[in-house]
């Protein structure tokens, strides 16, 4: 998986990048091989004013599926990252499961069709 992390109106001390790497490996442990590219954008919308202004946006490009875009605003950056990764992971798991179900149905139709041709 190719990962791109960008920060807007935030200072980079390396701690945030390490935190994101750790959370990414945990959130996508089962589906890591199904993601071609992940883009994460962290931003401070209001600047130093405070309030619910920390935003995390994740864009996932799964292999063979449409991209997934999830955005979350929270008071703290870590909360925004955690919520956003959780929602993106759930969405990717649903897409993978849906694709597996469709594949199984197609396989069943193909075997039924081949059995009816043989008979």
Q: Can you give a write-up of this model?
A:
- With 119 residues, the protein is an alpha+beta fold.
- The protein has a single domain, classed as Double Stranded RNA Binding Domain (2-Layer Sandwich).
- 46% of the residues lie in helices and 28% in strands.
- The protein has a four-stranded mixed sheet, covered by helices on one side.
- Helix 1 links the parallel strand 1 and strand 2.
- The protein is elongated, with a radius of gyration of 19 Å.
- The relative contact order is 0.15.
- The mean pLDDT is 87.
Main sheet record: 4 strands, mixed
Number of strands: 4
The CATH level-2 architecture is identified as 2-Layer Sandwich
The CATH superfamily appears as Ribosome hibernation promotion factor-like
Alpha-beta classification = alpha+beta
CATH class: Alpha Beta
Relative strand content: 25-35%
| Average pLDDT | 87
* Helix content range: 40-55%
Rg, please? 19 Å
Helix and strand run: EHEEEH
> How many structural domains does the protein architecture include?
1
Question: Uncertain segments of ≥5 residues (pLDDT<50)?
Answer: none
**N- to C-terminal separation?**
47 Å
CATH fold name: Double Stranded RNA Binding Domain
Spatial order of strands in the largest sheet = 1-2-3-4
The dominant shape is: elongated
């Amino acid at each position: 998986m190719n990962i791109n992390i960008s920060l807007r109106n935030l200072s980079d001390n390396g701690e945030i990048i390490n935190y994101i790497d750790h959370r990414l490996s945990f959130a996508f442990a089962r589906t890591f091989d199904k993601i071609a590219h992940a883009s994460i954008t962290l931003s401070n919308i209001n600047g130093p004013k405070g309030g619910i202004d920390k935003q995390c946006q994740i864009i996932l490009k799964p292999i063979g599926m449409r991209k997934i875009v999830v955005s979350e605003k929270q008071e703290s950056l870590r909360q925004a990252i955690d919520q956003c990764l959780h929602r993106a992971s759930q969405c990717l798991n649903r897409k993978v499961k849906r694709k597996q179900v469709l594949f199984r149905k197609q396989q069943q139709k193909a075997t039924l069709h081949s059995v009816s041709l043989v008979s």
